[in-house]
């Protein structure tokens, strides 16, 4: 295979156009085969193969810098930059990261993982280079989805003001900006980016500025033509020279366009139209499902290993039930309708479903205003992405004391997506905000009742739940409201009491039962409210046990264990207290089980901690 001869972009530059086309045809099935076994982001990577090849062919990487917005589309980039032989380890324990990683390769410019920051990074690198010297080309590759994020427009505005020497490649994979592609458009685009034409264009502009009426007329005609035949006017008004659209799956026009653009001074925006999932029928037909997918069967495209319902499924079922009860219930998500379990809700109640795009800040403030207007908004956003709306949670929801419910999916350890995606901070960033109620269910049945309780509380409320399968417990048919701020005792124990929250409760019960078999009388309390804490039950527990161990799947700094310690200290209760959770470090990628074991928050880790603690005493 031609692919086996490519170990760096230098090898790529030796190939003919025909060979580059052949290489693209080899890369697609290679990626598809491996991701079917490892899971990962498939559709986005299949859509950007030719564009990635063209970028590394034309530009001198890693001296020239390519910044991948989000970074979930970097698989071809990794294969072409010396990681072909280890690509089968992607997202696995100890293997390649599924996102750009500076520790992994000099070709990875920035550790990306969240959307809409690539242009800001490019502007910063260009400004640094302008101050310190250097001639590297700086390219930001951003999708049309990421362009919905306000940060992208802030960066475009700043780049236009600074006249930053950057190239923004807009990977438009849904044709949401323009469908204007084809031979004529591609030909005109290559002509208009040629060095000769570009020089003439700038020279004419310069000369006509001394003839204001003619210049104004010519400028108006130029913008009018662009407004009719393409979407470039917006970018031109922001100070960018717009190029495109160009077909992102035709190697030769891509190469010629990028070659011409590489000679120009920025800021430049190159509009490339691609198709998500290209080359794999199932991903082309259902790009949303194949955006981020677990292992699947190549021939059918069917996911493998689907077992019990997930916590996401339970949320999706419950919010549909609540919406049937009350037509004031509305749902909001940030480009994650399927991922957050809102697909059925959107089908049943399309006029009460809002996908606001990758714009979490707007989504949270929008939800606050909906609540102010008398509706019952549920905001379903992954824990890691909700961090982006921290200011809005404080000022636009909690300060106003508005009854917005945050369904915080993918909390705790998420697995193979790694440090940019672990929901490790939500207990800490919610807990200290006034007016906030914060819960974590021990199982799916409790999640159902928490969602109903949050609907009833008329307060800002957040419910965090983990990625993956639920426990398979029986789910009650009816709803019941959980009294706010109440815990429950699941086991009594005089030697030790484990107070756990969320998905750590079940493992705490298992640990207590095993410890009891070894003669250690361990109790368990379900600390389902992180805020407000059940002070009465906590103090009662402290008076009947010799030591307390808290467990959480969150950073220890500012987390659940800290909340327990604060209450005990304020009450003047002196009792040996230890906390298990995520230490002050970024957690790498790997399977959830492997990572929990490494952090000591699995069954063996809890038992080992308790025995060592008692042995030391």
Task: Tell me the domain tally.
Answer: 3
Rg, nearest Å: 27 Å
What is the CATH third-level topology name of the largest domain? Rossmann fold
List the total number of helices. 25
User: Can you list the strand order of the major beta sheet?
Assistant: 7-6-8-9-11-10-15
Say which CATH homologous superfamily of the largest domain is assigned.
Thiamin diphosphate (ThDP)-binding fold, Pyr/PP domains
- For the secondary structure, the number of strands is 17
Helical content stands at 40-55%
Describe the structure.
By secondary structure, the protein is α/β, with parallel strands linked by helices. It has three domains: 54-77 and 98-276, Thiamin diphosphate (ThDP)-binding fold, Pyr/PP domains (Rossmann fold, 3-Layer(aba) Sandwich), CATH 3.40.50.970; 311-466, Thiamin diphosphate (ThDP)-binding fold, Pyr/PP domains (Rossmann fold), CATH 3.40.50; 488-616, 3-Layer(aba) Sandwich (Rossmann fold), CATH 3.40.50. 43% of the residues lie in helices and 15% in strands. The chain has 25 helices and 17 strands. It has a seven-stranded mixed sheet, with helices on both faces. A five-stranded parallel sheet has the order 1-2-3-5-4, sandwiched between helices. Strands 12-14-13-16-17 form a five-stranded mixed sheet, sandwiched between helices. Strand 16, helix 23 (560-570) and strand 17 (577-582) form a beta-alpha-beta unit. Helix 16 runs parallel beside helix 18 and helix 21 (504-517) packs across helix 25. The longest helix has 22 residues, at 17-38. The model is unreliable at 175-182 (pLDDT under 50).
């Amino acid at each position: 295979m031609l692919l086996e001869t490519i170990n760096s972009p230098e090898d790529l530059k030796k190939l003919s156009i025909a060979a580059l086309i052949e290489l693209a045809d080899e890369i697609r099935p290679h990626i598809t085969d491996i991701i079917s076994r490892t899971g990962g982001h498939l559709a986005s990577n299949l859509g950007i193969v030719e564009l990635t090849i063209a970028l590394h062919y034309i530009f001198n990487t890693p001296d020239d810098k390519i910044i991948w917005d989000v970074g979930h589309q970097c698989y071809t980039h990794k294969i072409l930059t010396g990681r072909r032989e280890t690509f089968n380890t992607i997202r696995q324990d100890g293997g390649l990261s599924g996102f750009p990683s500076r520790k992994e390769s000099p070709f990875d410019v920035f550790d990306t993982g969240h959307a809409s920051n690539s242009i800001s990074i490019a502007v910063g690198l260009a400004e640094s280079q302008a101050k310190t010297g250097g001639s590297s080309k700086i390219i930001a590759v951003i999708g049309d989805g990421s362009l919905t994020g306000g940060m992208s427009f802030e960066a475009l505005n700043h780049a236009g003001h600074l006249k930053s020497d950057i190239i923004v490649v807009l990977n438009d994979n849904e044709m949401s900006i323009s469908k204007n592609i084809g031979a004529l458009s591609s030909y005109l685009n290559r002509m208009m980016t040629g060095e000769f034409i570009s020089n003439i264009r700038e020279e004419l502009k310069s000369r006509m500025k001394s003839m204001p009426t003619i210049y104004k007329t010519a400028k108006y005609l130029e913008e009018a033509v662009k407004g009719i035949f393409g979407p470039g006017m917006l970018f031109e008004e922001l100070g960018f020279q717009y190029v495109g659209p160009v077909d992102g799956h035709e190697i030769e026009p891509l190469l010629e366009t990028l070659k011409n653009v590489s000679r120009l001074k920025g800021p430049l925006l190159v509009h490339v139209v691609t198709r998500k999932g290209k080359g794999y029928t199932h991903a082309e037909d259902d790009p949303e499902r194949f955006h981020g997918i677990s292992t699947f069967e190549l021939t059918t495209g069917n996911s493998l290993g689907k077992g019990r319902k997930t916590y996401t499924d339970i949320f999706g079922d419950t919010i549909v039930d609540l919406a049937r009860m009350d037509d004031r219930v509305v749902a909001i998500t940030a480009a994650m309708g399927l991922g957050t379990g809102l697909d059925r809700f959107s089908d049943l109640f399309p006029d009460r479903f809002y996908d606001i795009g990758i714009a979490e800040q707007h989504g949270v403030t929008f939800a606050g205003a909906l609540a102010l207007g008398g509706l019952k908004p549920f905001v379903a956003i992954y824990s890691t992405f909700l961090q982006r709306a921290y200011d809005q949670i404080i000022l636009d929801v909690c300060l106003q004391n508005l009854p917005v419910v945050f369904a915080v999916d993918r909390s705790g350890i998420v697995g193979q997506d790694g440090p940019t995606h672990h929901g490790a901070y939500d207990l800490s960033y919610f807990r200290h905000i006034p007016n906030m109620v914060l819960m974590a269910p021990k199982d799916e049945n409790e999640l159902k009742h928490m969602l109903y309780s949050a609907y009833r509380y008329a307060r800002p409320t957040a419910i965090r739940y983990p990625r993956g399968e639920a426990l398979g417990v029986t789910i009650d048919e009816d709803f019941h409201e959980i009294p706010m701020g109440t815990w429950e005792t699941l086991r009594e124990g005089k030697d030790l009491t484990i107070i756990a929250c969320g998905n750590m409760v079940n493992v705490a019960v298992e640990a207590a039962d095993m410890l009891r078999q070894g003669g250690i009388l361990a109790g368990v309390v379900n600390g389902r409210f992180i805020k407000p804490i059940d002070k009465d039950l906590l103090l009662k527990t402290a008076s009947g046990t010799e030591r307390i161990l808290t467990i959480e799947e969150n950073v220890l700094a500012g987390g659940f264990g800290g909340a327990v310690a604060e209450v005990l200290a304020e009450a003047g209760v002196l009792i040996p207290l230890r906390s298990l959770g995520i230490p002050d470090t970024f957690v790498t990628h790997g399977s959830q089980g492997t990572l929990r074991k490494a952090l000591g928050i699995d069954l063996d880790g809890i038992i080992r901690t308790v025995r060592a603690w008692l042995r030391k005493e």
